[in-house]
Amino acid sequence: MDIMMSSYSEDMNDEYQKLLRRTRPPRVVIDNEACKNATVIRVDSANKHGILLEVVQVFADLNLIITKAYISSDGEWFMDVFNVTDQDGNKITDDELVDYIKKSLGPDSCFYYTMRGSIGVKAAASHSSIELIGCDRPGLLSEVSAVLTNLKCNVVNAEVWTHNGRAAAVVNVTDGESGLAISDDERLRSIKELLRHVLRGSDRWGKAKTVVTQGATHAARRLHQMMFADRDYERADSEDGKQRPDVNVVNWYDKDYSVVTIRCKDRPKLLFDTVFTLTDMDYVVFHANIDAEGPEAYQEYYIRHVDGSPVKSEAERQRVVQCLEAAIERRVSEV
């Protein structure tokens, strides 16, 4: 009965969100006159958990730089203002790119779906996606590549992150001869077993995992989730003196918010990484201020858990701090 009621509630919520979308469609304004050094992009829409992440992901996937942002989503309406440049610090003036942003975030976009449904969505099976996580060590990537070559797999693309002694990768492969996704179950089983053996390496606990799926996932999302599930945010004793991002979480009791502040060296996709982490941990961002015009980024989030409560305990506060630190550090090697 509980499962049926939960399913009914989710269906009703989806129908309500569809109604809001029809009556109050997203509005996107791209303005190159309002700011001297950046393109100002305003996004207004009916509010929904995860919508901020979907908007930020559009910018991250286009490798655009967010230098400033003001975010407000208290109530049923979502209003964001972003100052955005390209990787060279220039305004966004390319007509095709401007049109793409408008279509990606506007009334005809497909980004407006549930957070949980958006992660791990399978695309057309043009390749097989291999997810790997295990103990990091020198030469690991070469060994993985050698195994895939021996198994006659062609690597279409790959993304690899390392953090706190662990390594995670999402590798998209096709059959080396046909160029198609690998569909033979026995071959897929062999690929998983051999890669798991490589990943274990000298890790005496054998803590390694491989997963093969058909189609595509969003690599950065999956890597964050994989490393979070692997608890890479737990600090090793040898790293106690390591310089870390300045992350603080305090409760604003008058408003029932928890206020998260982050100060760290700025880098591409930093905002995506922190917003994804908060959203995936089931926190809702009601307001935020972002300033990354200099070498250091400042982020301020006013959050509550999806159940409406602020951070409830010291243990929860510490977990939020550690998880945000890990999210910031995982991608540092890309810079």
TrEMBL record:
One of its GO terms (molecular function) is amino acid binding. InterPro entries: ACR1-12, ACT-like_dom_sf, ACT_dom. Keywords: Repeat. It holds the Pfam family ACT. Residues 40-120, 129-211 form the ACT domain. Binds amino acids. PANTHER family: ACT DOMAIN-CONTAINING PROTEIN ACR4, ACT DOMAIN-CONTAINING PROTEIN ACR4-RELATED. This is ACT domain-containing protein ACR.
